[in-house]
Write a structure and sequence with these properties.
Dipeptide-binding Protein, domain 1; about 575 residues; D-Maltodextrin-Binding Protein, domain 2; 5-stranded mixed beta sheet; alpha+beta
Length: about 575
């Protein structure tokens, strides 16, 4: 914490000048500060800020687009476990759960006044089913399951699946993690090339959405949205108009700058910061709160962190070499250094939520769990068993080559880079010449999805929150493509494709067809997990915690463990709920 206190004095004026300049820009239409909510974007910049085609890789959605403009069909409430209707009214399966009927809410309209209806759903789903590249957002997932779709009437669409899937609504249309399939306005997208269309034309009011805000301006550092007083939700009685007149998503830079801005009431919601930074903010601005009022402060994020190797690249195509790295890593040290003691080590690939605990316990009981402490000697024995010998440089050598690995890391938050710094030190001390390569989010994404990496820090076993299939499905052969081709839907980019993968896939497919909570699933998870343990296509590290501070100087109603109408992830498609709950302080 002391480093933040020392930083405040010398750069406070710089931060204030930055903040005042930023708000001068955003105040162009004379919206008062007390009517404006300012959110943080945890990136270095918004690439292509006027590209609102979320289907193609590289397009931002969490700069306000899917928090204020693009609404979901349904929202999973993490606190209650219920799936709450939004654009959709209901999504009901038949008895065999291979036919699902979607009924839309009556009266939903696009921001230009056009009706939101079954034609929009039909257009969007068929567009994704017809994507021969399987790279458009949502295409790979829907192609795995959907055989055909039928329009019944203006509010009803039937999904005919290839097999029973009791998780269909939850996984793809309920903001289970971050987002989901966003329905497109057919009257805008029809006839457009989905790979090149930017979905941006201010003269025509594009981008369109059904949400209560519309776009004012977009730049690489700031996106501004103003309230649409003709929002369908208020017109139909679904919900009153949101109170904020303006929403701003802003690039704020380093953690230190986030802390300074929030300390001076120039940022209402910051992205993930460290406990030390939070305590420094709160010392200067007692109006700042987090999920918990005391340590650990943070909300438990559903995406455990992991280290992944490209299993198609030697020498890391050898499972023993990947297992060696897993043994060498001390997960407790990651917790102590990168998380300042506010998270826990992972024992499996799964998030350690209550609903997942029966599966985690079974995997650990079968001997497939991961130790929080390192066994460096055992890891080195595996390396030496593969023919490597310790050289005079302190690194392993073989046939004139040094055992080396470069870890790609998204540089958007201190959590990521600090974790990789710890791993680099641990692996180097054990004899692996390890370096890290911090990259912006989109560059990182392009490299790993196309297989242009050796190792990468990530969270891409993310998916399951109350059942195991979704996370496990991400590593099946359904999504394997060779290096140089983009991994479909961000799945199996570690290129795991062995006989073990095929056997694993067959078991995971069985799980996917069983009803939620079926007693057979626990044993099947253990059976499939044996292949993960044997080949280590990825290395689970730690559970993720997100310390997301909110300033109550201007706005109250933020989600907390006490006011838990849902979780506090302001970069998710469920942020619509947060915005609708905000009230002016003192009101």
């Amino acid at each position: 914490m002391s480093r933040y206190r020392k930083l405040f004095a010398p750069i406070l004026m710089v931060a204030l000048v930055f903040s005042l300049f930023a708000f001068t820009v955003t105040a162009q239409d004379a919206v008062a500060r007390e009517d404006t909510v300012i959110f943080d974007i945890d990136d270095a910049a918004v690439p292509n800020p006027t590209n609102f085609n979320y289907l193609v890789p590289g397009t931002n959605r969490n700069q306000g687009a899917h928090q204020a403009l693009w609404e979901p069909l349904f929202i999973l409430n993490y606190e209650t476990g219920e799936i709450q209707p939004w654009q959709g009214e209901s999504f009901i399966p038949n008895e065999t759960q291979d036919v699902w009927t979607l009924t839309l809410r009556e009266g939903v309209t696009w921001s230009d006044g056009e009706a939101f209806n079954a034609d929009d759903v039909m257009f969007t789903i068929q567009l994704l089913l017809d994507d021969e590249t399987s790279t458009l957002a949502g295409a790979a997932d829907l192609q795995q399951w959907v055989e055909s779709i039928e329009k019944v009437d203006d509010r009803t669409v039937v999904f005919n699946l290839k097999a029973a899937n009791p998780r269909f609504q939850l996984d793809y249309f309920s903001v289970r993690i971050w987002g989901g399939v966003v329905i497109l306005p057919e009257h805008v997208w029809a006839g457009q090339d989905p790979f090149t269309f930017t979905n941006y034309d201010p003269a025509q009011g594009w981008p369109l959405g059904t949400g209560p805000y519309t776009l004012v301006s977009a730049s690489p550092t700031e996106i501004i949205w103003d309230r649409n007083d003709n929002w369908w939700g208020a017109a139909t009685g679904f919900h009153e108009l949101p109170v904020p007149l303006r929403l701003i998503w802003q690039i704020t830079g380093s953690e230190e700058n986030k802390a300074l801005l929030m300390s001076n009431n120039m940022l209402d919601s910051a992205m993930n910061i460290t406990p030390g930074a939070f305590e420094a903010i709160r010392a200067r601005n007692p109006n700042v709160i987090a999920w918990y009022p005391d340590l650990p402060y943070a909300w438990a994020d559903p995406c455990p962190r992991q280290l992944s190797f490209n299993t198609a690249v030697a020498p890391w195509d050898d499972a023993n070499m990947r297992q060696a790295v897993s043994l060498i890593i001390d997960r407790n040290q990651i917790i102590n250094v990168a998380y300042e003691g506010t998270s826990t080590p992972s024992s499996t690939m799964f998030v350690q939520y209550g609903g997942m605990q029966p599966y985690i316990d079974a995997v650990v009981a079968a001997g497939f769990g991961i130790s929080p402490t390192a066994d460096v000697a055992a890891g080195q024995a595996l390396i030496e068993g593969a023919g490597w010998a310790m050289g005079s440089s302190g690194f392993y050598e073989k046939d004139g080559a040094t055992l080396a690995v470069d870890i790609l890391v998204n540089n958007s938050t201190a959590e990521y880079t600090r974790t990789v710094d710890v791993i680099v030190e641990q692996l180097r001390a054990a004899g692996i010449d390890t370096t890290s390569q911090p990259l912006t989010g989109q560059t990182w994404d392009d490299q790993v999805m196309n297989g242009n990496f050796t190792a990468a820090y990530n969270w891409d076993a993310c998916g399951s929150v109350n059942e195991p299939w979704n996370s496990m499905n991400r590593f099946t052969t359904h999504f394997y493509v060779p290096v140089g081709e983009r991994s479909p839907g961000g799945n199996n980019w570690v290129r795991w494709n062995t006989e073990a993968t095929a056997a694993y896939t067959a078991i995971v497919d069985q799980i996917g067809n069983l009803p939620l909570g079926d007693p057979q699933i626990v044993d099947l998870v253990v059976e499939a997990y044996a292949f993960i343990a044997a080949e280590t296509p990825f290395i689970p590290l730690v559970q993720a915690s997100k310390l997301v501070p909110f300033d109550t100087t201007y706005w109250t109603g933020w989600p907390t463990a006490e006011n838990n109408y849902n979780h506090p992830a302001t970069w998710w498609n469920s942020t619509h709920q947060i915005i609708l709950n905000l009230q002016k302080s003192g009101s």
